[in-house]
Design brief:
By secondary structure, the protein is α+β, with helices and mostly antiparallel strands. The chain has one domain: Ubiquitin-like (UB roll) (Roll). The protein is built from two helices and seven strands; from the N terminus they run E-E-H-H-E-E-E-E-E. A five-stranded mixed sheet has the order 2-1-7-5-6, covered by helices on one side. A two-stranded antiparallel ribbon has the order 3-4. The longest helix is centred in the middle third of the chain and has 11 residues. The mean pLDDT is about 90.
Amino acid sequence: MAIEVRIPTILRTYTDGAKAVEGNGDTLADLFADLDSRHNGIRERIVDGEQLRRFVNVYLNDEDVRFLDGISTKLSDGDNVTILPAVAGGMR
C-alpha cells in the first residue's frame, strides 16, 4: 500500500530534503512508524506518545485527522497525508 506523505520544510532534514516521501501502514500510527524506520527521528517530531503533537497538523486527503480518529485513522492505498506545523505569532 503506497501513501504519499508531504513533508514540511522544517522536517525535510529527516528526509534528505525530499518534499514528499512514500510510506505504508494501515493507520497513521503505522505510517509514522514506517516513516521513522527509513527517516530516523521524524516520528518523535510528529507524535508525542500516542497522540499528535499539539502544534502539528496532519491532513488525510485534505481532512484534519483530529476530526477523524487521530493517529488511529485508517489509511487506504493512494491516500495523501500532509504534515503541517502550526503557525502562530505575529505583532500586536
